[in-house]
Amino acid sequence: MSVPELLPWLNGDWGALWGHPGGLPHALLLAGPAGVGKREFAEAVAMRLLCEQAANASRACGECDSCRWFASGNHPDFRRLIPEADVEEIESDEAPPKAEKSDKKKSSQILVGQVRALSDFVYVGSHRARGRVIIVQPAEAMNPSAANSLLKILEEPPATVYFILVSDSYRRLLPTIRSRCRMLPMSRPDAQSASDWLAGRQADASKLLGVSGGMPLRALALVEQGWGKLVAALQAALGDVDQDEMSLASAWEALLKNVEVFAMEDLITLLQEWLSDLISRQIAGRARFFADAEAIHRRLLTRTSIPALFHCYNQLQTARPLANHPLNPRLFLEDLAARYLATFATPRPTR
Ligand SMILES: [Zn+2]
Q: How many angstroms is it from 49 CA to the middle of ligand 1?
């Protein structure tokens, strides 16, 4: 596995890591948005660290016993600290979903017991001579006691133990943890390299780059979760502003029901992105999230005004905290639909 080949936009980060004059730190913090490739990068670093033949900064050999164990998920000197709720997803080798459906049985936190359970691994010698590697992912999932427990290890790390913390939102980490890590912010791909990369894998995913924040691995995950059809259906529903709120709410309800990894909060996010596109289409002539909806955007813009769009955007922001547990989901959707449709009933200012 080679990061430069897999994810070309991380090439520079890879070189910077191995070329650092201080060598590799005991605790590395990979920071960046979901879908930029942090997990793949972390695994490539771990594999390279454990490889028994890699002599320089380039890559793991992929052929030694260590590399083979790593690839099969059985390396005795490698651990992954993840929330219980993510275990299945990680094992099925899929990129993280946009928002998880809640599953009350499994914790979405990394718990203190999981960190304590590492102590034998950390403090007893390694199986092979190369050292031991622990990926903590996502690091912000550690609850405060887990984080404090990890901090104790990071304060006096054994010589050949390497922690790789992976975080979508590193500001949520304890400052004391952050200060023990060397942070490597992951470089984002530019629009061209993101869509080039996707073109060779899953061309449909290119259409989802906008709603993925330009992150190709996230777009890939979303297309596998049925978001291609979802976004097309949503665009069509939002383009019809002559329907009543019941029918728009029904369209949303159907999407929420039929697409597994699509929650009410995601709907609000997409609606806000849609409104933000209308605003920037009007002001700057381009859209960021739904780039291929230009015809619909242009038509809708003849029916509304910038202040009305901002007003609706703010109303959605106010509704967001209620999105995960609305008292009555159907009424909640109808209310959102009514507010959205009202935005396009406003006559355009003539002055
Ligand atoms: Zn190797």
A: 9
Give 45 Cα–ligand 1 centroid separation in angstroms. Answer: 12
Give residue 30's pLDDT band: very low, low, confident or very high (50, 70, 90). Answer: very high
**Cα(18) to centroid of ligand 1, in Å?**
16
The encoded tokens of residue 305 equal 């005004």
Cα 72 to middle of ligand 1, angstroms: 13
End of a domain among 134, 163, 188? 188
C-alpha of residue 44 to centroid of ligand 1, in Å: 11
Number of domains in the chain: 2
Tens digits of residue pLDDT in 60-72:
888 999 999 999 9
Ligand 1 centroid to residue 39 C-alpha, Å: 19
Band (83; pLDDT cuts 50, 70, 90): very high
Q: How far is the CA of 48 from the centre of ligand 1 (A)?
A: 7
Q: How many Å lie between the centroid of ligand 1 and the Cα of residue 43? A: 13
Full domain range(s) for residue 266? 226-343
Judgement on whether residues 171 and 265 belong to the same structural domain of the protein: no
Q: How far is the CA of 69 from the centre of ligand 1 (A)?
A: 9
pLDDT digit string, tens, across residues 188-217: 999 888 988 888 888 788 889 999 999 999
CA-CA distances (angstroms) from residue 264 to 99, 154, 297, 331?
A: 10, 39, 23, 13
Q: What is the reported pLDDT for 94?
A: 45
Q: Quick one: 172 and 282 in the same domain?
A: no
Quote the ligand 1 centre to 64 CA distance (angstroms): 4
pLDDT at residue 167 is higher than 60 = yes
Q: Where residue 346 falls among pLDDT bands split at 50, 70, 90?
A: low
Of 146, 145, 137, residue with least CA distance to 42: 137
> Is residue 198, in this structure, part of any structural domain at all?
no
What is the DSSP code string of 77-120? Answer: TEEEE--GGGHHHHHTT-PPPSSPPP-TTS-SSB-HHHHHTTHH
